[in-house]
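User: Structure tokens for both sequences below?

Assistant:
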Amino acid sequence: MSWLNLDTMTWCLKGVAAVWLIAQIAPAPQHVLLDAPQTVVTNAPQLCVHTRLIDEVPEFRMQQSLRAVREMGAGTIVEFFPWAYVERRPGQDDWSQPDKIFKHARNQGIRVIARLGLVPEWARQREDGTPTTFNELPAESYDNFAAYAARFTARYRDDLAAIIVWNEPNLTFEWGFRPVSPVEYTALLAATASAVRAAAPDVTILAGALAATLEPAGSANGLEDILYLRGILDAGAAAYFDGLAVHSYGLRSAALDAPARDRLNFRRVELLRDVLDEYGLDEMKVWITEFGWNDHPRWAGAVSPAQRVINTLDAFRWADAQWPWLAAQCLWVFRYPTPANSYPDGFVLATTDFDLKPLYFALQTYATGSAP
């Protein structure tokens, strides 16, 4: 190694030192100034939109999103708050990202429907060491999830419109690729309701949110929403929730198409309403926490951008006139932090770069009476 002389070593050390110094130079954290406290002005109090702020890195993007939501006339958002993000290690909570979301929502005058789910690794480990998914929650961890939900609701109770216990538990994927079970979900709901009501008794607890699906009993993919709802009510779940969260996508059907047991469309939610009434829950509200139409140009399940606007406005007008039992009507989705580069991009109201879609302005006119 005769080439490794003193000069060479000196320059190598200088290079290493320079790289180290550059690595230590980090831009100062961006300071986001809050707006003056805002109020949502709207003629459509049920207008709501699902956001995806939990994975948003720049804080100013959160503010930009929520400001646009307010200017559209929506006073409520649905946002996902994963347990796996907050309590990565048992007993160690990191509330930094949720705190930012609630700070900016409060500043814009927006209330939050919080969807709780996604299991940290420590709470889903199997004894045999076989892999698990983020959606697998073993029964022995129900109390741990309930404790997280209680801490969450106690912390943010003043800004919450409601919490949703889990997401689409009638789909196998969302139940950790295990057979779906209304009885097991009822047990999770019971544990969570007990803990949340002790910590924040004024917070509304939503069951669901049920996925619209036609899967028959015994299917490897899940269970029809109507059968699943009957299943949890037969298991005694009515004592553990205050409202029912449902998903009601229109797909390629028109908003006013009549509901039918063998059909997936927007008004399918009426069949779930009938089940609640059948079980004596006629005073219980229904919350549509995901719905909408897709206008992606290369997806078989999409409609044209113009038809998407027509369907969405028809859906709001129908619900306003016909569904006094509806508490909220939340579109999927306002914006993604990064583009999906696939058909899910056809659901957004704003692109990742904040180009607002025609539907945004149509909803703004519907809710506020004016648009730029």
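Moving on to the next sequence.
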Amino acid sequence: MGHENLKEKLINRFKQFLKGAKENTLLFYHSDADGLTASVIMAKTFEKLGNEAPLALPAEYFETEKMLSAFEKHKPANVIFLDIAIDSKPKVVQKIEKHAKLLVIDHHKISNDISSEKTVFIKPQMLSAIEPSRYPASKLCFDLCSSLINLKKEAWIACVGIIGDKSAKQWREFLNKTSKENNVSIEELKCIAELVEAVKVVAPESFAELFELFYFLSPKQILKHPLNEMREKLNEALKEWQERFEKEAEYYSKLELYFFVMKPEFPIKSALIDRLTEKYPDKTIIIVEDLEEQKLRFSARRQDFKVKMNELLEKAAQGIPKSDAGGHIPAAAGSIPRGYLKEFKENLLNILKEVYRKEK
């Protein structure tokens, strides 16, 4: 079967799933701008199709137990995962498949092909030649749902996801067109993406509230919401930690690596590293965040694709118990138990030494 036929078959399966999901649907979305906006687009599609609204819950990639307990509590007939690489946990998929149909829309690398009679599994690499990390779940969701209904008025929601996932360059034309048609400036869309990031970092307990803001309010109304105070709080913290990074980060010039361990008041590493990678796009930046929990969390960035961040972190965490790592080529993240920082760092340095040795 040719590639076009496979694409058509996949899109048809997607349409059948949505048309059949009339009621009792549980939707898990990654708690960031991309996952949030993908979930709102999906919920809007359900409304326009006359389906019962899905119960939408934010989650992190590693919160498998939280997702399974929500599944057991609500006993849905249909489950949707958006911007969550659940294909890396096939046993979880198999558990859910015993009781429900699944739809997975995600843009990370393919870990396992979880397609089955009960699971519709969609990633950009199945439909497009665009690098998956540059094809956010929000845009993929928008494109897929637009094959069923008219979402022109909701296009701005996808734009916030695109900006939040650092893919504006790839979708510049779409952003400009939407800005004109939806009467919202690119600057306003950027501010809304900043709001999502700020709430996630400074007031995570309010993150689920953002879903309702996006669902019911216009961009201009969102920017007047009291939660915007969080943007200022985040910017102040980012300024302080960026200065500390410049002074305190370890730099390994032969490996083009910045390594930084931080103990912030709230989880700021992702927002900080996104700023830093704009300044150092051709360097590997790794930030380890210590929030005095059982696990240390880390993020990695590099924009020139010289070193694959997802593979680097996955290999560095290998053999460390209760660790997890993954993501995209230019951006990845994970966690390790707090007693394994030294081993993790040594692994990173050894892997990078090998990468650069092969280059010579």
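User: Anything stand out in the second?

Assistant: The first helix runs from residue 3 to 20.
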